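Question (not urgent): is this output format expected?
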Amino acid sequence: MYELNFLFSLIITLIIEIFVLILLIKKIFKITKISITKIIFVGFIASFATMPYLWFVIPTFLLNRIQFIIIGELIVFLVELLIYNQFLELSLKKSAIISLICNLSSIIIGLIINI
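Got this back:
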């Protein structure tokens, strides 16, 4: 059951974060030099690089839910920031903003879905 919840969450996260990623890069920052295909690919990489660790690795090292949320999401934020910075060649500031907004979007929508 946990694995099915993970797969469902991964799919929802991919949809939300890739949509937000495209919106931020193309409409908010108005960056035209990066193709939609590359944005989608990097969005997949970012989620696939972080979600399994967030769900299966990090919980084994943390004692409680508060630690999991704070430390786990901080690690995800930082890793995805670096992925956006390196693969999309964005500044650290833009990468940080994008990582924060993408992750907050998926967390908030995920909480709404689970209510």
